[in-house]
User: Fold this.
Amino acid sequence: DDLYAEVTLPEGVDTTGHTLHPALLDAALHPWAREVMDESENVLLPFSWQGVALHAVQATRLRVRLSRAGADTMRLYATDPTGAPVATVQALTARAGALADITAGGTDAGGRSPLHLLDWKPLPPSGSTAVPEGVVVIGPDPLGLADALGAVAHPDPAALLTAVAEGAGTPALVLATFTDDAADAPGALEPEHDGVPAADGLPARLDALAARALELTQRWLELDWPDGDATAEPRLIVVTRGAVAARPGPEIRDLAASAVWGLLRAARTEHPDRFGLLDLDAAAQERTEGLTAALSELLAGGEHQLAVRDGGNYAPRLVRADSAPEVLVPPENTPYWRLDVHSSGTLGNLALLPAPEAGAPLDQGEVRVSVRAAGLNFRDVLVGLGMYPGDEARIGGEAAGVVMETGPGVTSVAVGDRVTGLFPLGAIGPVAVTDHRWLTRMPQGWTFTDAAVLPVVFLTAFHGLRDLANVRRGESLLVHAATGGVGMAALQLAHHWGLEVYGTASPPKWPVLRSLGVDEARIASTRTLDFEEQYREATEGRGFDVVLNSLAHEFVDASLRLLAPGGRFLEMGKTDIRDAAEVQEQHAGITYTAYDLMRVEPDRVQEMLVELVRLFESGALRRLPVTAWDVSHAPEALRYLSQARHTGKAVLTLPSPPDPEGTVLITGGTGALGSLLARHLVTHHGARHL
Assistant:
């Protein structure tokens, strides 16, 4: 029942920094692992350790006795060559793992994926709204925590220690805030693509914030508390805002603070009782209930990582991959796929399906584009649900990317150009094809996510107001759902052209309308019909020259009644399209036009795109706020869009193809996983510099 082995590190291996070198310990267990491997090629893997003791450090050679203590449990006794003890383990319990699963991933005996993912789960309300006793703040306080909590603030750990020594009492929790002031700047989260620099200064800001966090954690561990009782030492809680994604949707707004979370997680593995992490949302600064409840949870000691969202607390948990929120996976063995539905009726039928047509030879005037980001519109929700008129519509009609190939007769763009435009045959995939007249170059300095949302909304607003309504300076315009993509584009164009602008939106979005220059008296709600009487009074009974509409049913009727003689009603929606002749018969002197951007002549589309880029580069127009998801989370994004929870535009980002001439660094590259990854990068992605 005993196994004996002698294990030795290769000559020259440096053991500095290791108590017991991991390769030496791993080798000491191999005789037992080989002994218990069963006929089905399963191997027992270390699972639970008890009674572990280390008697010496930096050993390079071990003599090992492994004693069976049960079917899946053994004892380990390791000495140096002289017989002096190095390490003992009273009980090491193992669990079976199939070799095929270990090396390639697979399913367990029940047919489920063995992978686990991190998911944030809501915690039950604690019921505590009072600020816990013994909370202080140190260092910069950009979130105003000291004021919100009524807590004492100290400039640094040394000042706190001095106050404690002078009798202030040892606090229970010490809060330190780390935020990147530039995190909300346009393009702050955009990664680097094709040699175009990432957001200005992001790497430097990330380095600076992480360096400050490292310095604080090191200084914190060096503090000599007066009472000398380690159990009475306070916990340092590092506070961030928008550094982790605790709920579905695009929650990470501070990428530099995300690096701080990684650093503090590492620090906790060495000092689990000394640190905690807390991430806030914007509401936590206005409503302190969630913040105080989170501090109570951290003070109780059961949690060490929390996120406050809409007043509730979320904690990270490991969950099986097959129970996690739906994540779409591209089809194997093809570079050409797109977002589509197996069958219409529900967004749960969304999938990434093969699209071989994206790789077909190009026809006259066609362009093949490597897509980096694709805009989403409410039209895409209707297509996914099977509610959009006609059977030819595809999800994803606009995108931005890099030209891969041009067909015969194309002179407006060239290979390598960064472009944005319309893709009537669908654009949510790594490669898409369109007519060159639907494309134009991206505005200078824009990211792919910014450019992906330009075409549909600004073209729709431009075509409707300029081509169909022929608006003139001084005319009045009502824009419904004015905080949506087309609405925000229409407001900008209207201001540029000198129109009197009115806008509706749900009340929580009214601050956005104010920020866009809409007067308070000209803002109304999309949730009731009160806007009809409000606007009749605001216009002294005259009504509007133009209505840009996306509402339906009685909201349309009320809006038609608000049109002045000679007024033009522009219908963008698809759920309540009416007969123009009947409308004009019921409302004499007005014009009703329902329109669809995809029916506009391509030559006119390119003229408008060129004009829009000129207006953006001149500063007359501003890019829209963007909410972005990875394409693998498309169902989540479309549901978010369908509930009108967004402001501005929603975007799906596509993975950038690896550059074979780029350099790949694999840490641990000679281990099992590292070498498998290296081989995969070479054989599947053409990597040449590892």
About this structure: The radius of gyration is 31 Å. The longest strand covers residues 85-98. The first helix runs from residue 22 to 36.
